[in-house]
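Give me structure tokens for this 236-residue protein.
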Amino acid sequence: MKKELPIYRRMYVDLKKGIDNGKYKTGDLLPSENELCEAYSTTRLTVRLALKELKMRGYITSQHGRGSFVQEPKKSLGILSIGGVSAALGHKNLFTEIIRKPKAGQWDNDFFYELSAEEKKAGAISFIRVRYVDQIPIVYEETFMANLHISNFTRLNLENTSLFNTLHNKYQIEVKSGEQKIWAVSSDKELSKYLKIKQNSPVVHMKRKLTTSAPGLNIYSSLYCNTEEFYLHDYF
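Here you go.
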């Protein structure tokens, strides 16, 4: 037997559907709290829960004394997924700009994850990319890997190419598991330039460690995400 949705959730789904199908257009005023209370035979608290969720997801904005207005919703970015940025973004209009081509070198002494003796001995391959969606710079990403099992990697062109697909197709290496740390920071001058945002704007900073099927080979990433036009999401 299918479980019935809570009233606030049913109200959220109904209003979101009305926005998605054009019943409520950008700039339109949604029914008032009193009208929604009457329509769903519920309380103001329940109505406000539904409106709060719509607001959190970027569908509406509230104006004190006037009500809730429909706004152009942000698009979602699923970059929290272990599937990689290219797969997670999933947009046809995804473009990758190479800021620094892959190069071999040594690990920084204060690298942001603890490294194994094998990784330290092998040295690092690193590169920097910026990901664009619909011509908007969304993700600034620094990537690091031990120089193990990936011969001639520095000769590869990673522009508009998925790193995970490259590892799979060229080296038969798969990503197996991972961990990530996430917090909010203010953008510095360089980051603001690449993401085309004002300096000191809030951005999401994520540090990731992904293990692979190749012994000793992990993928480390430091990502900065501009969420002015998009929000982050994932399923769990």
